[in-house]
Amino acid sequence: MARPHGFPKFPHFKQLLRITAAVAVVVTTGCSSQSQNLGKPGETAKAVRLQLEGALGRVQSQPTWSDAADNAAPRPNFASDSISVAWQGDAAVFLNEVARQRFLKFTVTGPQPRMPIYIFVNATQMAYLDLLRDVDKQFGQRANVVLGDGYMELRYR
């Protein structure tokens, strides 16, 4: 069988050539059909700037929490018999402040290392001893508040 000039000796060369051409067409068509919907560089920058300005506006409209003397809540007075306080945090810090205002020596004792015990106190016109009982109940089996003559102690178990 005579071969026309220019075709190699492979028997299925025409099929391979057709398949290769079809794959090349599909690949280039797939790449060009994805529409890249990119705007002009100026439009993109403007859209990003508008989004950032909107986000900054929302953040600035949120209520602020400041430690400034004008905005800070008055410190609770633990020296009186009737106490009003809202506190969330470490019990040792809270009890240290209570002891300081009552002119008591404050100590923390017990096994080391000590994990902080977080308490939540929201008292309005509460008696001093009732406040300490409430704090002590929040400790569960982890610690106790001990009150003595001239001292207050947080005893970890």
Would you kindly provide a written description of the structure presented here, covering whatever features stand out?
The structure is a single chain. This protein has 157 residues and is of the alpha+beta class. The chain has a domain at 82-156: DotD protein (Phage tail protein beta-alpha-beta fold). The protein is built from 4 helices and 5 strands; from the N terminus they run ααβαββαββ. The chain has helices at 13-33, 41-60, 91-101, 128-139, and strands spanning 82-90, 105-109, 118-127, 143-148, 151-156. It starts with 12 loop residues before the first helix and ends with a strand.
Task: Give me the secondary-structure topology.
Elements (H helix, E strand, L loop, with lengths): L12 H21 L7 H20 L21 E9 H11 L3 E5 L8 E10 H12 L3 E6 L2 E6 L1
Parallel strand pairs: 2-5
Antiparallel strand pairs: 1-3, 4-5
Pfam families: DotD
InterPro entries: DotD, DotD_sf
> What is the C-alpha radius of gyration, as a whole number of Å?
38 Å
The CATH topology name of the domain at 82-156 reads Phage tail protein beta-alpha-beta fold
CATH architecture of the domain at 82-156: 3-Layer(bab) Sandwich
Overall mean confidence score, pLDDT: 78
Number of helices: 4
Extract low-pLDDT stretches: none
CATH superfamily of the domain at 82-156: DotD protein
Helix content: 40-55%
